[in-house]
Design goal:
Blueprint (H helix, E strand, L loop, with lengths): L2 H20 L28 H19 L4 E2 H12 L3 H8 L5 H7 L4 E6 L2 E6 L5
Length: about 130
């Protein structure tokens, strides 16, 4: 090998080394397979194993929020914020886990014997349905 070929070989060797470095796996926290996307359920939402459990949780949240605010109903937006604060997961994601093409509002509407949903302006309000004797 002459000096010209040696220079080309050295240049190619540097490119190979750079490529090998770039091919190293990412650290675990940067690995896309281990990231927590909104479609996945966080650890503490595993306790919500059915729609009945979700219903009970939402009832408790609505009871507490209406007691605190001294109002008969709360906005669905507020309910979603309370839920997210406790479970670090959107309530809509939990509903979709059980009912693929649904949402929290659709779930609340479907449980009309438990929840009373009204539209106040452009915002949905939710209250606990009155028991009919």
């Amino acid at each position: 090998m002459n000096s010209t070929n040696l220079g080309v070989f050295s240049s190619l060797q540097n490119e190979i080394n750079a490529t090998e470095e770039a091919a190293n796996p990412l650290p675990v926290d940067q690995n896309i397979e281990n990231q927590n996307f909104p479609e996945t359920l966080p650890y503490n939402s595993i306790a919500i194993d059915s729609l009945d459990t979700l219903e009970k949780i939402l009832l408790e949240m609505i009871e507490a929020a209406t007691f605190e605010s001294k109002e008969d109903a709360i906005s669905v937006t507020k309910l979603k914020k309370i839920f997210f604060k406790k479970y670090q997961c959107h309530a809509d994601v939990i509903v979709k886990h059980f009912l693929a093409n649904s949402s929290l509002i659709k779930f609340l509407q479907s449980r009309h014997s438990v929840f009373q949903l009204t539209l106040n302006g452009s915002e949905h309000q939710v209250a606990i349905a009155q028991k009919v004797d």
